[in-house]
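Q: I'm writing a short explainer about Aminotransferase class III-fold pyridoxal phosphate-dependent enzyme for a general audience and would like to include a description of its predicted shape. Could you first generate the structure from this sequence?
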Amino acid sequence: MMAGASTLPMVDRAYGVMIVDTDGREYVDGCSGTICVNIGHGVSDVLEAISAQSQLVTFAHRSQFRSQPVEDLTAMILAIAGPGYREVVYTNSGSETMETAVRLVMHHHAGTGRDIIVSQRPSYHGMTVGALAVSGHPPRRRNLEALLGGVAKLEQVSSSRDAEILPSLEDWLLVLERVDPARIAAVVFEPVGGAASGGAEMDVRTLRGLREFCDSVGALLIADEVMTGFGRTGEWFGVTKSGITPDLVVTGKGLSGGYLPIGACIVGERVLSGASAADVSMGHTMSGNPLAAAAALAVLKYTRDQRLVSRAREVGTFLRGELELVAESVPFLQPPRGRGLLLGMGIEQNPVDFATTPLNRRIVEAALRNGLLVYPSGVDARTQSVMVCPPLTIRDREVEMLIARFTRAVSQSFVAERV
Ligand SMILES: Cc1ncc(COP(=O)(O)O)c(C=O)c1O
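A: Of course. Here's the predicted structure. Afterward I'll give you a sentence or two in plain language.
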């Protein structure tokens, strides 16, 4: 249980963008849970698909049976991913998917001496040991370095400019060119940051530059699309705008919109070519179970049929404009950054106050008191931020309700800050 969890409200039910507690209080889900409930709560198409599948079969292991939901889901994911991909390996979370991608990299390069993975700081790729080992998230790595050190030889790239949270292409190349190119196994990145960098976005030039670099030295490129994948950014994937094809695409969260646990690693043609990634990645007991696959399939169909990807773009523009107005009237809030409905706002606070009472936590708590969920992010005082990422289905009047509650929450945190 989380520290302080006993003070949290007890959830009762949820519908659309609203969550209701057992005292009957309603909350606007302004961060889609942990930025995963992409299509909103209680969508009947998904509930019916889960119910129908559960009447047929809930568990059949992939080593013993194929199943229609998994085959249909794989076909749909590969169609969305486009040319260049061969197969999909299923897991139960984003962390497990990143773990799978890292393992596939190691299998792909086995016997070649390639053992270095390069990632950026700040970044977050998951809580399992392999995923955390490639993450640039000091608070989540705390006390665990002994576990993480042996997993992957890690090089991390930070921004050389104070005002920029993410490294530029020049920052990446400076580090990459220092490392023996024959030892680089993979480069891993989040196209738009979440838990670590609160909506900071990589630019197209950097994405293309990393693709070119990996091609030139024979390394694999891993895109962590756990938060950005399946429509959140106003495109199917966070990398879509750049036109690049990463070798491994790591997904989770929005794939099932939070209805059931599932993650999927989308594997490029050149990874372990001639072999099946599913054979070497092994997976877990529950990986690729028909029930979770049926839920994910229903979520993706709903996303496609309701045109939620373009909706994320349109509503994202409206929400961004509203958040800009909030930022103009609050000295410690930076203008929103991010893409589509993956938006974060940086928070300025001196490091001493941050160490005792980080403002983003205070905003999250004040928001909860005002009937709103928002999400804290960042790894230190410089990167602390708050994320406003409602479901892609949010309507304009619900955006207005969200903004009214957010404005109240922020002003209450501000008063508290000045005391
Ligand atoms: C970019 C990114 N990668 C990986 C993960 C880990 O996913 P999960 O929490 O489902 O294990 C997260 C979770 O927040 C994430 O945002």
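A: For your explainer, you could say: The pocket of pyridoxal-5'-phosphate is lined by residues 34, 93-95, 98, 124-127, 190, 194-195, 224, 226-227, 252-253 (CB under 6 Å).
Q: Perfect, that's easy to follow.
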